[in-house]
Structure formats: structure tokens, C-alpha cells
Design a protein that fits this description.
Length: 473
């Protein structure tokens, strides 16, 4: 039995207009520079251009939905993190988005790389990534994945359970190798978007709890192992974080743990990883810090906590994913239907349906993530209308952009571009409703290259081994 209600009374809060943070634009054609990759501009024709490539032209050649990655922007963000955090190691979190080509860019820009499955590891290695600069994550790495990581000679494995430590020791003995290991700890901080909670957030699958002593047990266990080189400890407190308060609490608790480990064993572990999670601007309500500001704050935090515990400053690393690839990507869709819906109080919301949706970007449905959108094929002199951009899937929650002002004459055939779509969209894509996954194209210097081709229905049906009864009509 589902919960039912009279729509009017419960949904009255959406009546008049969009959310408070969303201002009615004075010029609905104007691009908010904070949301778009650095080479995006509107041409005199009204079309969007990125990397010197016309978005309308590209969509005409490759169809939509289409993901476009601005290579220069990606590389610039990678370099900005590398330079701001000079002396530390910056690991690009491959799970945000990785292909062989992207792994190559990360390698060329001098960053390290995080992977968390065999698939990501193989992509990185085939992209020419130096295994010594790769970190391997995951709370349930298979024996096969660990074996592959050890054989490849990855720089470090971030262990997440005692079972995994057993497996690593066994594999090291078999292979006659040693493993370089960090212990993933749970510092009891969870950060999300604009707030963090520094209480007991221990009830989750990742890491060893500092609070209940499990982290120390795992560290001592690794330290005592004849085949493991324990480098240090690792914490990752969340995603889309805008202030460094959560990192401060994490650094305090991890430095305290390193100090307690020294007391217990006489050994100073040399390394600390503070994870990723640096926020980006998806909408005008987000104001992320530049890497330089983040670096200054995080260095200060680590140095202060080290001093407080009379410990040497550890060799520190961070793991940005979203902050490098997110703003570099945009998604392009074609409008299929436009449907005004009356809200309480006389307001209207226009439902704009596009040819993609939750299968290529699950984030709004998965955790109410917010996005923005603009017309990509033309400008309009019409007034802004409050719109909701929805996908083509058979789910009411198949929303791409919950609230956005688009020109009132938005119509079937228009192209919509969604900025900040480079991270956790195509990489999380599914085939729900048997919808093939969109391609990803890199643009740079007026050239474009396909990183991932469009999936086809033949690709999908190749997995379906059932009988072929009929042919195409
Ligand atoms: C997901 C993840 C990251 C990257 O997070 P972003 O929000 O993309 O910066 C870094 N480290 C670990 C361990 C992760 O799980």
C-alpha cells in the first residue's frame, strides 16, 4: 500500500515559482560562466561552442544525447590541482570518469590516479598510466583484482577489511612480492554539500572505525605483516563539499591516530590521504573554492594538527575526481515534448522532455542532485518560463534538471545543454528501458575525437541469447 494524498495540499510549497536560490534571469540566453567549462561561448548564430567546436554541428553528426568533454579545461583543472598542491600527491579519482584517453591526459599532467575495480585498473594501464602512480580502492576487491593490482605493481592498495589483508598476504606469498598498503579509516565525519556532521558516522560500509579501535587493530596487523609495507592511513569524508571544516576534523582524528600508533609501535607512518570530495558549481547556488585556496587551507590544517600531536608533517595526498572532470563536461539533449502543468496558486511549470534521462544521468534521481540547462541551438527573445527538464524513462523521478528558467518558446527539436556533467553521469550510466548509452566526445582546438562511441541496440541485444523469432518489420 502506498501513501496517498490530495496533491494540492501536500505540494502547495511548489506553487508560486522556482526555489528561492533560482533567480529569474534578466537575459535567459546569458551563460553563467561559473557553471561552464572555460572554452564555452555562444556564437553570433546563437549556437553554443566548446573547444572551438559548434555544438549544433556535433549533435547533427553524432546525434543526441551526447556528452562533450572540454580537453583544455580538464587539463587546466588537473594542472591547477597539481600546482596548488605541489609537494603533495594529487590522485585523480577515476571513478568520476575514465577512458584510456583520459587516463593518458591525467598521466601527462603529472597526477596520480585512483581506481577501484579491475575494469578501471585495466583502462588506466591500457591508457599507458604508470602503475606505480596508481592507488587501488574498494571495500570488496576480489582476489583476482588484488592479484592483478599486485602483478601490475600498483603504488598502493587501500585496504578496507581484515579479510582483504588476509587475501593480500596470501597473494604476496604466492607471487613472492610485497604490497604497499594504506589503511582506510572512518574518522567519524560525514560531509555533504554545504554542511558536515562531525559526530559518529560509523554506520557505513567503508573503512575501519577509529572510534571503536578497529583502525588501530588493522594498522598493527599490517605493520606486523612480513609482506606488507604500511605507508599510512586514508580517509575520505564525502562528496560535493564546500568548506574545509570536515577535513579539519578528519585531519585532527587521523593525526591523533598516527600519534597513538607511534606510541604503540614506535613507528611514524609517513603518509596521510585526505580523500576527495571537493565541490563544483552545478547551479548558481554553489560557490566552490579554487584549488589554491583549498591547498592553503588544507596545508594549514595538516601542519597545525601535526604540531598539536608533536608529529612530523606527513606526506599528504588528496583525491579530487568531480572537481577535475565535472566542470569540463556538458550533456546535450534534444527536446521531444513540451507540456505546461498548472500549479496551485495559478503558477505554471513547463515539463520539457528530452531524449535521455536517468539512464545517462542518475544523480538527480539517486540523490536529488541539481543541475542547470540552457538552449544550445539558438537564442530567444521570449520571457523566461519555469521549466523542469525530464527524461524519457518510465519513472516519475526521471528528472534531469528540477528547476530552470528556459525561454517560453522552448520547443520540440531544440537542443538543451546541461553544464557540469563530466563526473558521475556517463560513468554511472545504465541501460534502463533498453536505452543505449550516449557517446563521449573530446573537443580541443576546433577538433573533436570520440572517446566512447554510442552504444547501439545491437550491442544490447548481443547480450540477449534468447531465440530470434522475428526479423525487423
Ligand atoms: C569517490 C571518491 C573520491 C572522489 O570523490 P570526488 O567527489 O569525485 O572528488 C576520492 N576518494 C575516494 C576514496 C572516493 O571514494
Amino acid at each position: 500500500m502506498t501513501h496517498m494524498h490530495v496533491a494540492g495540499s501536500v505540494h502547495a510549497d511548489v506553487a508560486s515559482a522556482g526555489p528561492q536560490w533560482l533567480a529569474v534571469p534578466t537575459d535567459v540566453n546569458e551563460l553563467d560562466r561559473r557553471l561552464w567549462s572555460s572554452t564555452v561561448r555562444r556564437e553570433t548564430t546563437g549556437s553554443l561552442e566548446v573547444g572551438g567546436v559548434d555544438v549544433v554541428d556535433l549533435a547533427g553528426r553524432l546525434g543526441t544525447p551526447l556528452y562533450i568533454l572540454d580537453e583544455a579545461d580538464f587539463r587546466a583543472r588537473a594542472r591547477a590541482f597539481r600546482d596548488a598542491f605541489a609537494g603533495w600527491d594529487v590522485y585523480y579519482a577515476g571513478k568520476a570518469f575514465i577512458t584510456r584517453t583520459v587516463a593518458g591526459w591525467v598521466h601527462q599532467e603529472g597526477l596520480h590516479l585512483d581506481v577501484c575495480t579491475e575494469g578501471e585498473l585495466r583502462t588506466a594501464l591500457e591508457g599507458g598510466f604508470d602503475p606505480a602512480r596508481i592507488g587501488m580502492h574498494g571495500n570488496n576487491k576480489s582476489v583476482r583484482e588484488l592479484e592483478m593490482a599486485l602483478r601490475a605493481g600498483v603504488g598502493r592498495i587501500i585496504v578496507d577489511s581484515l579479510d582483504e589483508i588476509d587475501r593480500i598476504e596470501e597473494l604476496c606469498r604466492e607471487q613472492g612480492t610485497r604490497a604497499r598498503v594504506m589503511v582506510r579509516v572512518t574518522p567519524g565525519v560525514e560531509a555533504h554539500t554545504h554542511e558536515y556532521i562531525a559526530t559518529a558516522h560509523e554506520d557505513q560500509k567503508f573503512g575501519f572505525s577509529i572510534a571503536n579501535g578497529a583502525a588501530m587493530v588493522a594498522m598493527v596487523r599490517c605493520h606486523a605483516s612480513p609482506v606488507i609495507d604500511l605507508l599510512g592511513i586514508h580517509s575520505h569524508i564525502g562528496s560535493q563539499i564546500f568548506d574545509t571544516g570536515g577535513f579539519e576534523v578528519a585531519a585532527r582524528r587521523t593525526m591523533k591516530l598516527l600519534s597513538q600508533f607511534r606510541q604503540a609501535t614506535g613507528t611514524v607512518l609517513p603518509e596521510l590521504d585526505l580523500g576527495g570530495g571537493f565541490g563544483i558549481a552545478y547551479t548558481s547556488q554553489d560557490s566552490p573554492s579554487a584549488p589554491e585556496a583549498l591547498a592553503a587551507e588544507l596545508r594549514e590544517i595538516v601542519e597545525t594538527e601535526a604540531r598539536a600531536h608533536r608529529m612530523p608533517v606527513p606526506h599528504t595526498s588528496i583525491e579530487p575526481g568531480r572537481a577535475i572532470v565535472g566542470p569540463a563536461g556538458m550533456a546535450v539533449y534534444t527536446v521531444g515534448t513540451v507540456k505546461p502543468v498548472d500549479l496551485d496558486g495559478g503558477a505554471q511549470r513547463v515539463y520539457v522532455s528530452v531524449d535521455g534521462g536517468m539512464s545517462d544521468n542518475i544523480r538527480p534521481a539517486l540523490y536529488a542532485a541539481e543541475y542547470s540547462a540552457t538552449l544550445a541551438n539558438r537564442v530567444s527573445d521570449q520571457a523566461p518560463a519555469l521549466c523542469r527538464v525530464v527524461g524519457k524513462h518510465c519513472e516519475g523521478g526521471d528528472i534531469l534538471v528540477r528547476d530552470e528558467y528556459l525561454p517560453a518558446d522552448v520547443r520540440p527539436g531544440d537542443l538543451l545543454a546541461v553544464p557540469a556533467s563530466g563526473a558521475y553521469s556517463r560513468s554511472m550510466a545504465s541501460n534502463y528501458n533498453h536505452v543505449p548509452r550516449p557517446p563521449v566526445v573530446a573537443v580541443d582546438g576546433a577538433e573533436w575525437t570520440t572517446l566512447l562511441r554510442r552504444e547501439t541496440l545491437d550491442d544490447l541485444l548481443a547480450l540477449d541469447l534468447g531465440p530470434v523469432v522475428g526479423d525487423l518489420p
